[in-house]
Amino acid sequence: MLVDRLTSAAVLGGLRQRAWSLLIVAAFGVLAAAGAAGQMFAEASDNAAFRVRLGEVAAARQSDAAVVRMSADVGPKSFDQQSVVADLRRVPGLTEPDMTGGSIGAELAAPKFWSFTVNAGGKHERGRLFAVGTPAEELVGTPAGQDGLWLPQPMATELGVRPGDQIVLALQVGNRAKPVQVSVPVGGVYAVDGAGRLPTGPKWGLRRSDLPDDTEYRTLPAYLLVGDVPTVERLAQATHDQIFWSVEAALAPGATLAEAKRTADGLEEVRRKYATRPPANGDDLLALRFASGIGRIVATAQATTETVRQRTRPVEWAANGVGLASVLAVALLSARRRDREIRHEIAAGMSPLRVGGLWLLEHLLPAALGAALGWLAAWQLVLRLGPPGALAESLGPAATTGAMVALAGLLTVGCVGALAALRRVRPSPPATARRPLPWAPMVVVVALVAAGSLISAGRSAKGVDLLVPLLVLAAVGVLAGWLPGRLAGGSRLPSAPGRAVVWLARRRLGAGGAERRLAVTVVTAGLGMLLFGLSAMDSTAISADDRIAVAAGAESVAVLGGGSPELDDAAVTVPPDDPLRGAPPDEPVPGARTPPLPAGNTVVWRGDVLTPLDEFRKDLLVIDPARFLDVAMWGHGPDLAAARAAVAALAADPGTADETDGSGSARAIVVGDSSSNYVDTIRVTVGDATKDLEVAARVNAFPGMQGRPMYVVAATPMFAKLGPDDPRLRPRTRLPVGVQLFRTFLWSGTAVGPVLAAKGVVPESASSATLLRQDATYIATERTRGYQLAIAGYLALLAILTLCVYAQRTAVLRRPTDLMLARVGLGRNRVQRARALEFVLLAVVGFAAAVAGVAALAPLGGRLLDDQPGLLPRYAFQLSALGLVITFGAAGVAAALAVALTTVRSRSAEEDAYRDD
Asked: What are 859-863's contacts with CB under 8 Å, separation 24+?
């Protein structure tokens, strides 16, 4: 009966320990959240990368877009395509399949003459039949409200017909054959794209490769006579044309990466099914056509997610380790707190295994509650603060994982209880002197060795090197743990009652012993890791922005193959050769100018130069400084801030050379060139000319830098010195020398497309900062830092729990003393204020030590956090102002909870002072 009562009491005992029960639930909540967050974070990260890749697709081809279009020769009639429709309908994650069909009669009749014309009012135009599900929904134009064919606007204008008019279709095969004619009403007139052929809309651009060609100009798409499937099929039969049918569908909106992967796998099965079937008549024109970009998009997103997973997987294990450590810490403190209870159980004859089992049962309900709360916390944290991806399939597995790690925590608690009891069953021999483990000096030595090894290694942190911040902060906490002892007051009670509170708080700070030092160490490490994680997030974001700015230069950049005159209708032509000297005079060309562009755009020229200072080529970047300041990306770091200030100075004083005097000076910003550190004037060779540049400023990084030293000069003085080789001049019969010496770029703070379209310029290539931001390395770094910040939050929570546990334990141990001090005249309020002041001072010491420890880690920030150490600008670790505020808030929460816990216990009855806790 005794066993049954103990078992039933143990089941609910874990929830009857008041404040201690809250600590137990919180510890298991941390553990379950760490276990559950991994899978949720992975799915959110995967789906975020997939949505980005899906949005990046330049939908110019069906093989690149999130659609599928399949043309299979299963029969000449539309009804025969129902098997294909059914197969695609069974593929999960696709929209309802649509049937389309285009004329293929001309291709099958080749090399015979084949002509399909639309006739009205004595005029005729070539066209080809094309069927869609609902023309009014897929075309932009004017409907007639009746069945018939939709005509393109240019054809309708040429024929002089409107919706509702009658037209005659005529098909002639062979030069001498009589045309087959059929009459049909005009169902509508639709708008065409800029090229004047295809209907407007993204769907028609994707279908371009499957649309029938013009029968006379094979390089152009034909004018499409669009109707619904029954109408087009009827007209094709009447005119003896043949339709090649296709079935198309798109990826369902809002699909996740896992769903898209299943869709891609299902499409591949359908493709293999029809690819193994030969065409019905063996004609290659009717062979299977299959186009889909879903699989390619999924593969690209998976490559990004795999990079992210490689970075976050070790951090996930570290998070689980931190959560298990919190449960273990609570279990060890429980063993010490309940030492007298364990002695009584052993004296009553209970076995260690029985004690461990009772502890396990006692923590079962708190563990279940903590696991549920931890799963909920992990879900909300990932949903609100994690990657911007959907959470759908990971919630169930994450709950299972959270339950599994909570079970591991339960087993840990049971083992701690059993071992604590076993230690009492077999105590150490009386003659054996117990010596405390010198853990504090060991932590300091290990931290020094780890930090020294990382410094001497000369490389970025890898693997266990990432523990260096925790070790360093723990070592700083060890050193700070001796500081409260220095605050201890004298042994005599002060005469003035007002000073008794400070005296008592200082005295108790000096009497904390090893427990106090351990509490300060854990608080310092937890708060320090929170501050380090927040500062790392901030520093990494700044570094990424700066590096993208350096690599991209501007938000959008286009390469102009024909030089800047393409953008300037009034560009001056290269002067003719001098009749006496042959070549034009080597002086500024009157009227040469930088192309006028809309605000937010500028032209940049880039060339190669040589200097006598070394044998390496360097970049020469020619800019319009005033416009460049508004267009270029400047990031948020100090290196690019210095570069921006240098450009502003260059805009104020670009040099004395101008449109009328090419002999003046040109000033230059020197970027990353150590060979010119000790000279004020640099002689550079541009093509066949040698020019002198005065050094205006020296900076370490610059927008548009391409990995080698660079000189940045203003366009007006530099091109004035080049004379007829000015790349802004329009060529007479060939490209001028200046265009050959310089590559011309259009930089835009938004997008280069509108400017190029307005001038009718087709660039050689175009790039954008958006594509750089989606690089797998940057995404992986961002995701990893976010997960590490979550672990830092767990450690901060552990620090808060530690201070609360220390406060609760010291309050229990000191309760008899507090009651006596209150009765001898100090008063209960003063005792409580002294206790509150003690824990506030401990929190302040922990916060100050955390700030000092993170500041000490600043020189190691690059090696600890920089995943791309070869890029510019160099990684600079800086304390985050927001991080300081949040860390100070966490310290305040820890102090407030510690005071609240001890205040609640101090209101208990006086008899509690003589009870075992």
From this structure: 860/451, 860/454, 860/455, 860/468, 861/536, 861/539, 862/460, 863/454, 863/455, 863/459, 863/460, 863/461, 863/465
DSSP state of 858: G
Residue 745 sits at φ, ψ, to 5 deg, of -125, 145
Count of helix runs (H) and strand runs (E) in the chain? 30, 21
* Cα→Cα distances 613→93, 176, 341, 616, 675, Å: 63, 80, 82, 9, 6
- C-beta of residue 293 within 8 angstroms of C-beta of residue 57: yes
Among the listed residues 287, 201, 187, the one whose alpha carbon sits nearest the alpha carbon of residue 235: 187
- Greater confidence, 21 or 8? 21
The confidence score (pLDDT) of residue 169 equals 93
410 secondary structure, DSSP code: H
739 vs 877: which has the higher pLDDT: 877
Which run of H or of E encompasses 186? Answer: strand 180-190
Residue 239 CA to chain centroid, in angstroms? 57
| Mean pLDDT value across residues 486-504 | 63
Rounded to whole angstroms, how far apart are CA atoms 64 and 61? 5
Apex CA 531: angle with CA 529 and CA 535, to 5°? Answer: 115
Segment holding 745, helix H or strand E = strand 742-748
- Tell me the C-alpha distance between 447 and 438, whole Å: 15
CA dist 10 → 336, 347, 357, 917 (Å): 18, 19, 9, 16
Distance of CA 764 to the CA centre of its chain: 29
Task: For residue 105, give the amino acid letter.
Answer: G
Six-digit token pair at 331? 């279990």
Give the other-Cβ count within 10 Å of 84's Cβ: 22
Tell me the pLDDT tens digit for each residue of 315-349: 788 778 878 887 887 888 778 777 778 887 787 77
CB 770 within 8 A of CB 501: no
For residue range 84-116, list pLDDT tens digits in order.
889 999 999 899 999 999 998 888 888 888 889
| Residue-wise pLDDT tens digits, 619-673 | 999 999 999 999 999 999 899 999 999 999 999 999 998 888 878 899 999 999 9
DSSP string, 506-561: HHHHHT-HHHHHHHHHHHHHHHHHHHHHHHHHHHHHHHHHHHHHHHHSSSEEEEET
pLDDT of residue 20: 74
Measured CA to CA, the distance from residue 491 to residue 479 in angstroms comes to: 25
Q: Using CA of residue 131, residue 133, residue 136, residue 140, what is the dihedral sign?
A: negative
DSSP H/E element including 243? strand 243-250
**700, two tokens:** 């370490």
Q: What angle do CA 880, 882, 886 make, to 5 degrees?
A: 115
From the number of C-beta atoms within 10 Å of its C-beta (0-12, 13-18, 19+), residue 90 rates as exposed
Question: Are the beta carbons of 611 and 682 closer than 8 angstroms?
Answer: yes
Question: What distance in Å separates the CA atoms of residue 397 and residue 376, rounded to the nearest whole number?
Answer: 13
